[in-house]
Design a protein that fits this description.
The complex is a heterodimer of chains A (185) and B (216). With 185 residues, chain A is mainly α. Chain A is 66% helix and 0% strand. In chain A, α2 packs across α3, α3 runs parallel beside α6 and α5 crosses α7. With 216 residues, chain B is α+β, with helices and mostly antiparallel strands. Chain B is built from six helices and five strands. In chain B, β4 and β5 form a beta hairpin. The two termini of chain B are 41 Å apart. Classes of the chains: A mainly alpha (185), B alpha+beta (216). At the A-B interface, α1, α2, α3, α4 and α5 of A face α1, α3, α4 and β3 of B.
């Protein structure tokens, strides 16, 4: 599914050529990964404002990690692991305080496609809504694996981010797909 | 895999779609697909469904992130205004040298004491306040330190294992999850209770810290 999850071509941005500092690398990763990270956090029931803070903190930690000559073999998985842990910590403290409301996932305004009739667009929007809701209702492990897969992460990256084996990740993806099929059938 | 009799499993198809199969297994799948219409349909169906899930995930509402990039860059870029001038550095350096020399002299003359007493762990201690047992943060995850671990070992290349940890073991290292109020009504014996936890393994292969997940 290489084309499906193709990453944007960040090398095309001339600002990033030549400069090899940690700051340059952090901003490069920010441009590429901030949106998928926010989406992932939203599916973890983190509210949008907290998601913004967590994402910024993730990249500050990435900068510290790079300045400290940390391991750079799979920084994307590293970022998701940090985001995942920060979200978990944030939710734990929120649960303790019982002040933060968890908003869940809200839909983007659907882009009107000229290829579809009004009725088809409604059906498509309804299907997307069902899928989004279905994903949020999946068991945590299946939801996390499925959302990260949809963001283009390889199984070993998902495994590294979630602290699981690749075979468990594959199993969670398959179970999540099965459960979702039943929801939208 | 007998490609003539068995159809491809969903797991195999998903791994193939996600480019997660070794070359040999992939070729075997492709050979099977060349001769099996039902499996080709299943591949097309799972591919289509994967695209729909991706669309659903990507149609999530995004908060306005326009200011975040700039804030982040400001946080990370060294501010020229905060750079100290050379004269200030020298003055500070002079004072620093004086303080360092005084301290070094004091340490040489001071009587020697055992400065590392073992922390006394009681059953009600959750996290000791001893500096030796300060919380360990790895990749944004906070671990309660295991008291007898070697705190000098690096956590730069951490190995974190998720596992069920017996409650009694946690109590042994000073972590009590919550006060037990209904012991009599507990159906599971204390010795058999366990919780899900991330265990931070140090460079010596021994546990350095524990992050209890079980109550989430």
């Amino acid at each position: 599914m290489g084309n499906l999850f193709a990453l944007p071509n960040i090398a095309a941005n001339a600002d990033y050529l030549e400069d090899t500092s940690p700051l340059r690398l952090v901003m490069e990763y920010y441009d590429r990964e901030h949106a998928p990270l926010v989406r992932y956090l939203c599916f973890l029931n983190v509210n949008p404002e907290t998601a913004k803070e967590i994402v910024q903190d993730c990249f500050v930690k990435l900068h510290e990690h790079l300045e400290g000559k940390g391991d750079t073999t799979n920084l994307r998985a590293w970022l998701y692991r940090v985001a995942h842990n920060l979200a978990r910590n944030s939710q734990l403290s929120a649960r303790a305080r019982k002040t933060e409301s968890l908003t869940g996932v809200t839909p983007q305004k659907e882009a009107a496609s000229s290829d579809l009739s009004a009725e088809e667009r409604l059906l498509e929007a309804e299907r997307m809504r069902l899928l989004r809701e279905g994903i949020t209702r999946l068991p945590e492990a299946q939801k996390q694996a499925l959302v990260l897969r949809s963001q283009g992460l390889k199984y070993r990256e998902i495994a590294q981010a979630l602290g699981l084996s690749t075979s468990t990740v594959a199993e969670n993806i398959q179970r999540g797909m099965d459960a979702l099929k039943k929801i939208v059938a | 895999m007998n490609t003539q009799i068995n159809h491809l499993s969903q797991d195999l198809i998903l791994r193939m779609l996600d480019d997660e199969l070794p070359t040999a297994a992939r070729l075997e799948c492709e050979n099977h697909l060349a001769a099996c219409e039902p499996c080709r349909q299943e591949v097309a169906s799972l591919h289509d469904f994967s695209l729909q899930i991706e669309s659903a995930v990507h149609s999530t509402e995004m908060p306005d992130m326009s200011a975040v990039r700039q804030e982040l860059q400001m946080r990370l870029e060294p501010s020229p205004a905060s750079a100290p001038n050379p004269g200030k550095i020298m003055r500070r350096f002079g004072w620093g040298m004086g303080i360092a020399a005084t301290l070094a002299f004091g340490i040489l003359l001071a009587p020697r004491h055992d400065l590392s007493p073992q922390p006394e762990l009681t059953a009600e201690t959750q996290v000791s306040s001893s500096p030796q047992t300060a919380a360990i943060e790895v990749d944004g995850e906070t671990f309660s330190p295991v008291p007898y671990s070697n705190s000098d070992l690096s956590t730069a290349a951490p190995h974190i294992v998720q596992m069920q940890v017996p409650v009694s073991s946690l109590a042994d290292i000073g972590i009590v999850l919550e006060p037990v109020t209904n012991r009599a009504s507990d159906t599971v014996p204390e010795a058999e209770r366990s919780v899900l936890a991330d265990v931070l393994v140090g460079a010596d292969g021994q546990p350095r810290g524990v992050h209890v997940l079980g109550f989430e």
